[in-house]
Amino acid sequence: MDFKIKLAPSFERKSTFYLPNDSAVPAGLETTGLQKPDLSCFPYPLPSKKSEYTGELRVGPVRWLAASTGLTRYEPEAAFESDIIQYFSATRDLADNEVLALCPDGADGVWVRTKTAVTHIEMIKTGAREKAELLREESLRYVDRRGMLSERYLSVPRVLDSRVPYHHSDNDGGFTAAFALGEMFRYAVLRREKGVDAPETKQALAETLRHFDACMLLCYICGRGDGFVARTCQTRDEPIPDAGIFFRRQANGKAKCLVTTQSVEEGMAGVEVDCSHPIPERFRKPYTDLGYDDDDMIFKTDTSSDEITLHLVHLYFANEILVPDCPEIAPYIKETVSAIVGHIVDHGFRLCNCLGRSTTWAKWNEEYFNTPLGWPDGPLNCAEMLSYLLIASAVTGEVRWEKVYKELLERGYADTMLEHGSRYTVNAKIENVTVWEYIMYGDHMLATCAHWMLCLLEKDADLRALYEESYRQWRTSMAREHNACYDLTYLLSVPGAENEVDAEALAVWFRRTNLSNLTCSVRFEERHDVAVTTGKLGDKAITTLLPPDERSITKYDRNPFCDDPGSPHRLESCYTYTFAYWLGKYSGLIED
Amino acid sequence: MQDIYLIGNAHLDPVWLWRWQEGAAEVLQTFRSALDRLSEYDGFVFTCSSARYYRWVKELRPDMFEEIKRRVSEGRWVIVNGWSVQPDCNMPGAEGFARQGLYSQLFYHENFGVKCTTGYNVDSFGHSHALPQMLKNSGMDCYVMMRPSPEENPDIPKGAFIWRGSDGTEILTYRIQESYTANGKKSIDAAIERAVGLAEETGTPQMLFYGVGNHGGGPTKGDIEYLQKVNEEELGGRLKFSSPDEYFLRLAEARPDLPVWNDELQHHASGCYSATSLVKQLNRKTESELVNAEKWSTVAALDQPDGALRAASGGTADFAAAWDKVCFNHFHDIMCGCSFMEAYDDVRNTYGVALDVARNRQFAAFVKIASKIDTWIDGVGDTVNADRHYDGSRDFPRPMVVFNPLSFPVRVPVRVYHPSRRVTDEKGRDVIFQNVRSSRSNDSHLDTVFIAELPALGYRTFHLYWPEEESPAAGLPAPGPVCAGMTGGDPEDGSCYIENQNIRAVFETKTGTISSFVDKNTGAEYVGSKNIAVPTVIDDHDTDTWAHGVFTFHNVKGVMGCRGMQVVETGPARAVVRAEYRFGSSFLWQDFILSDGARTLRVKCKALWNDPFTVLKMAFPLEGSDAVSTYEIQNGFIKRPCSGTEEPALTWGDLTVSGSNGRRGLAVITDSKYSYDCPGTELRLTCLRNVIFADHFSNRPDALFNFTDEGLQRFEYGVCPHSGEAETSSVPAEALIFNNRPDTIPESFHKGCEPQSKSFISVSAPNVVLQAMKLCEDGSGDVILRLYETSGRAVKTAILCDAADCGFWADFAPNEVKTFRVDADGKAAETDFLEGIC
Fold first, then answer.
1. Quick one: pLDDT at residue B703?
2. Tally of domains within chain A
3. Which residue from B685, B519, B525 is spatially nearest to B601, judged by alpha carbons?
4. For chain B, N or C: smaller number of CB within 10 Å?
């Protein structure tokens, strides 16, 4: 494939906030002197209404346009068309949107006085790789907890050092697995570039293994030994949210279900279960090194297919990339993959809790598919289950998995995959919504992982063609996100995909991702240069995709056309960028 | 056993073998009957389509209308098909379908508090691949259709399926297997047997349509009572008196895995794509003129920043009334040319009303816009204004304001009905012009044609200078890229040519056909072993008006013989070569016209057609491999096999082949036709079809009949060469230019606040075009902008309209149409055909 995403260094925005009387604020920042710009016949849509623009600062070819609703940067000769107009708004780029004064910073940025504060907006030329490292550093420093990464809250807005002990845990394991995948691809790239013995490579391996170990801990922490994977885990010193089912390990080899609203409703509060299956020493180290013991650990059990899918993909690539250099982890990988998939198969294609009941969102059987809730999920879950079996077969070499795979094919699992689009149409009719409102954006990542593995591992041409066709159905809703992860995996999976994927839109995604994942809000639907649509349920979405630094910072599971207000108290994991970037480098699709 | 949903209906053709007045009377009688049945039988449910019928009832029998409203609120009278009529579903333009939905759904919403969710065209003769998107945009997510029958196209799924449209939109669809008019015991028994059989075969519930129809009637007492009896005694209550709305909901709730159909639904009555050229021509022209008049009316109203004042200035009521006429004439038996002759008198009149509205509103808008232009020229303006009478000295320019309705700049010939000695633009630069023969013989009998470069949805002011003498010479040939001439030997057995910068066409004078057609930009020759533009006459004796059961017109009677060719004009603005043909008692004149810079060879045709049971096709054989034929449909295009089947299309059809120089093709653009075929590597435009009016299954007594296309026919087509595939070439743009000519008004000299040239919209992506610009129907003064993607490629575009104070980005999927509503602040909201009103 000749397809290449060429990523040249580009200006990245970085905002630092000051009080107006701060000594760092230049004296030249005055409220007078800005000319009202003449915007008649302006050749591009503007994020503010023309009448809202109050002043202009010209610095070389760049025009900074001040408005009562934010700041616009106009560079007519920008290297990339997508960068000609850039918009800066509160609270991510500015303290508030009423821009009162501007002055140049002597570099490529600008000082901005708004009503409540002063902001120094720097425009820093940064390469894609450099950005990957910066984001990674931020996540490892401020989001990471014992190798796990999801998100982190700050007690003081914007102050990353004020991160609080972890108190929210949902899909934690899945997001960590996604980060770990990025780390593995990073390691593989460094190994290829610098050699396995280079210090940087060795360090990358050590860091990768740290996150690998964190994921593996989730596979053992429950102590059941039957392949059940915990959704997340935490220490006794981290607060337990009232959201989900949590068990506290005890010294007597049992774990006790903690009281939460859900555990009470499900009759599980206080239940004790056996957790005597040992946790391998290397996976205990993340908490024993901090002075904790097994009975200081708490794990969450309402695991969903999200986690299972990401864990298995993670383990597949761990087997491919890490095992050749770290053969000692191979037995754990094989054992774990076999246990997880075996658990699912042996429990009638379900993930079952300690009481033998299915967890809510981890069912892959026809009984579930024949329910109103499960029917639209059927195509995706069939794809997942088939991909699990192919992964298990590839990792373990056990004959059993191929047999189960064939059995599911005969039961129509592959054929059901092709019903995705039509089932969405029918279900949207039942729910009286548009298909666009019906989409679960989190399913896009799962569909990506499942189809990626199916296309990668299935060798039969007819089946492969079916999987590609199914993938194309998903692309009708995924393509418009121009999400780098989705597009790159599609390119790697489906022949001819290079004719469908917009390389420039992909490049925009990488170029315009922020240098920090602090999820401050941006001015979104109110922008003058976007149209807003309102769904049958009253939800609003914009109808054009904004660049990543001008829209919400979220994980992959959110609609990029809707506003997620975010918060200056929340710092997201960088996996969305690092996974995509290093996968691109690993596969040769990205050229820096 | 699956449930069978009984749909009590009355198929009403408002016009067919009767005029609309009889159709309206039938509506009143049928609705009375239905209301009576509702009173007599608890549980009976009546389903009926077409907002036009309900409007008639409201106007003519308001008391009955109130009864219907009550029954609708009870859920026992179900309104389906949020359109004005059951139209032909191939030939209306995209904006025509949008108006079907807009005005009808608003009517239903205002009068009944409902919006139709089920489209319903049980008799329409085939369905464009664009329809799912048209329906969804009109608030409908389900569809009932019948034609083509399983015998005509057995591949279309039986019963319920998912129909995926050209842009990917999916709707639940139900295909009626046999008939929508089961009535009487025998017919109902057969319908039940079919429905039960299909339910067992598919595992899904089915619908059964019963009631007397075509000329109204509806379910009879006997039908209802018989169904009740059968239901109770034989089918254990599995028959449900119901509606399509309920059926589709229950079907969805059963969560079946339905087959997906990703294509158009064709063919039935292929002869209807060409029968009765009058209605086709009037429809194309009227749709286009209404759309353009609305654009200008809206632009003119935008000088009012206040929404209410804007709404008052650019009122929508008369446009709505005009579109109502057009939408009525979309009715399948009208549009398809298969109604009886007298119906077309009404058709001509009603299109005339609509055209009159368009022209009056457009002119008013032009005058308003032009009145603000600063046309003043110092030393000229004051002289003219002070001395407005011609004293023999006419040495001053006349300002002419030319308006381009398209959303992209154009360079096109413009005609004004006066001769000139000079033409300049607003900066005083000379513009290529030519005096050409006018349609009159009075005075100089000359008009001016000049080449105008016009801004997107904008105007430009030109100045025409009077000629020095009363009867100036009619444009002398001048050396230049535009020319025509005869070459070598006997004019009746030699050749003549016409060429400009882009095209050179050589004609064989003996046959009047093109023996060489070269795209000068690529050097590609499009003529192989066979000449192109061959007027071919087809024998059509063995079909009826619809061409029931006939899907190809290949029985060639002969080729029209050429009676001579002549060079009529030759540069600098344009060249014209004329050929005259005869076949039997019929005559054809073709003026082949190439303007300076044109990419399309325009052919202006006049036919005097007197041969019954004939079809005239214009044939364009190409040579090459991997032939693909492409045709315009609403908001996009469709690829079809080169099978020779008669195919519906909008303004262009194309044949592209592979050759030594890569992919190249010829598009044939038309101003008034809707029918093509492509047998192998020969594309043919169907120019006229001369068959008996409303000749049903050829059950003809011996009589003197009137024929659909007899007599004088005027039409135009264009031949556009291109490289690559049609949809990504200049063809879509050329077709828009061909069908949307600029308009001109003279202006006086005056001061003004506007420049002499101005554009009112900018759309950055070349494959996104403005389809409509209007004021919102709710009187808010908000502006509606509707755009669509032409090339089948996803794109992001900037849309700028300073007059509406708006500028925004929009993503378009392939062949997607989007409607935006811009408020007084210039903020855009994406909506649909219903403008966010209901």
1. 80
2. 2
3. B519
4. N
